[in-house]
Each structure stands twice: as C-alpha cells, then as structure tokens.
Specification:
Strand content: 15-25%
Number of strands: 10
Radius of gyration: 16 Å
Distance between the termini: 37 Å
Strand order of the largest sheet: 1-2-3-5-7-10
CATH topology: 2-enoyl-CoA Hydratase, Chain A, domain 1
Shape: globular
Order of helices and strands: EEHEEHHEEHEEHHHEHEHH
Helix content: 40-55%
CATH class: Alpha Beta
Number of domains: 1
Structural class: alpha/beta
CATH architecture: Alpha-Beta Complex
Largest sheet: 6 strands, mixed
CATH superfamily: 2-enoyl-CoA Hydratase, Chain A, domain 1
Length: about 200
Amino acid sequence: MIDIAQSGTVTRLTLQRPDKANALTADMMAMLADAVEAARDAHVLILTGAGKVFSAGMDLDAAKDGLATSPVWERLSGAIDAFPGLSIAALNGTVAGGATGMVLACDVRIAVPQARFFYPVMKLGFLPQPSDPARLAALVGPARARLILLAGQKIPAEAALQFGLIDEIVEDGDVLARADALAEDAAAATSDHVRAIKAMCAFH
C-alpha cells in the first residue's frame, strides 16, 4: 500500500492503492508515519501517489472504525513538518479530506493541471485534524481557509496556485520528473547545509 524508494539522499514515498483512489487506511497511515520518521537522514522527501488521484482521503470503512480521530494523522503531519530536509508533495491528482494534512506539512507542493483540492469536513461531520486549519490559513489566508473548510469548496489547480496552496502547476503532468529536478540541489549538498537553510526558513 506504500512504496518506499531510496535513491542516494532522496526518499520517495508513493501511495499504492490506485484502485481505491489511494484512500487511506489505518495501516497505510502508520506505514507512512514510520517511513517519514525513518527518513530523517535523507536530504529530500518526496510524497506522491500511484494512478490519477493523489488521495481521496480517509477510507470510509476505516472511518467507521475510528480512524477519523486517530492520533496517527497528527503523527504523520508532525513528522513531515519536522523533517529537517526539503519535503516535496508531487501531486499526481486530486487531494481530498485528511490527505490534505500531509500535503500542507510539506515545504513545496507541485501538481498536475487536473488536480482538485477539497476537505469536506462540514459535509461529513468530522473535525479537521488539529494542525491542518492553521497550516492551511498560513498558506492561503484565513478567509480562503474558511472557504475550503466551512464552505466546502473544491479548488481547481489554477485557483490553488493563485491562493498559494500549491507552488507550481506542472503542465506536462510529469510531477515526479519535476520533483526530482527540484530535489537536485538539496540532494547534492551536505546534510548540515540542507538542515541549516531549512531551519533558517522556519516561521518564528
């Protein structure tokens, strides 16, 4: 369900459940969190998905078993946020619901033109994960965060770029090639250099 690939100083994590739009189960979440925590010595972390959807969010059967309130969501987004190197979300398609948290925690977000972004917590009756609204508001501003979370709006890639929710639309759709290109400088630098510049970019 999760493919972990290491190439030099770059770790790539791929959601591998394309037949279910990469909907997240408890096992997948735990595997992702374990993998991110284990990758702390890497210079670059790339998150992506197999198929045409990055993730449809939480698996609805898993939601019935309590995944919506599991601490694993915060564990994962916190681990990505604490990753000392460059983290890149290479979004091969739409991002929905709780999957948004890991994307918001990344340093850089790139997406295919057909990607959409929505977090239907109002409609489904769940609260967003605790750190997600603050990270979302930091990127797009409080009003647009409310547009997504309270009004339940689906945001197309062009609007997401305008909002600051993503940093680049990859017009040819090859987000992995673009992520690899973005990773080159950090991958080739020393670990201390990468960590120092990442720390200097942190919010205070």
